[in-house]
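Hi U.,

Before I forget, here's the chain from the pilot set. I'm dumping it here mostly so it's searchable later in email.
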Amino acid sequence: MGTMANAFLGVIFWVLALANTLLMFKLWGYAFDHERMVSSAPRPLMLTHRAIGYLFLGIYLYLMSQMVPRMWEYQVELPARTVAHLTMGISIGVILGVKILIVRFFKHLESTMVPFLGIVLLVCTTVLIGLSVPISLREAYVSKRLAGGTAFGAQGIERVKTLLPKAGLPADIPLQQLATLSGLNQGRGVLLRKCVQCHDLRTVLAKPRTPEGWIETVRRMAERSVLQPISEAEQWYVTAYLVAVSPDLQKSVQRKRHQELGQVSAEAVRKPVVPAKGRMAPPQLFDLGGAKVVFESTCNGCHSLTNVENSPPESEAEARNLVARMVENGLNAERAKLEQIVFYLSKTYAK
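Structure:
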């Protein structure tokens, strides 16, 4: 079952917990015969309460069957939210077990313990759903927003067609099929069905990468996927999707990058480097062909190179300002690479 389906089931799970708690308040308003251990509540209400309880238990067992195996997929320490989510899930199971034992075998505790356990069960269920459903809805929104952005437009698809052949994919991969609207949607589906089984979408999309970087990331994650393996074909589709949305990801982290890194890094780029001996090659020793490769592989990961051709820098200072703006927008690269890009732009376009 997909992430959104589980989120919908989680909402039903919480509604059942709330309904049973309110019904419990109603039932415990009726007289209770402590000698016979029998309530005077109407039998239809009792049966409804019991049916909701069984349905709640069934959904709980299903959700746990989805969650527990995923824990084995993690190769690193679990995130704090996941730990809290798992703790609440286990707590609900323990409370349910104790409540069932009291109702079935220790009825002398029923009048005092069951109402308390019912309230605690509702609280734990609320925390559990609160830790998961809003994140799932946010992931669906982010994914839908990315799909509605420039990535799935004509220019975005053309950009993917240009980048994929240079990214190191095997020759027998149907590259033209990957770089289509249906192919990108298929990759998005893989991301939402399988990748988020072990990661929040925020974790997957936290840092835009080059096409080569996405290939390596997807391959590494596929090797760690055991219970829900990602096939080789699915790897290529999800890689194409991630390559397609990288420019939009770059825009989404622009403000954070600007706050954390932008001003200092951008100002550093604007100032010509006086390289220390043995640390960085002087600009005049850069190879123009090598600098062009660095420029294309670094800049084309987030936007079309025609942007530069349409409005080229006319001096080294303009080239530095251009690269500095890219840093402010989230470009994260070594200073040596940035200097090679400045060198290439200056030599190619400056008058």
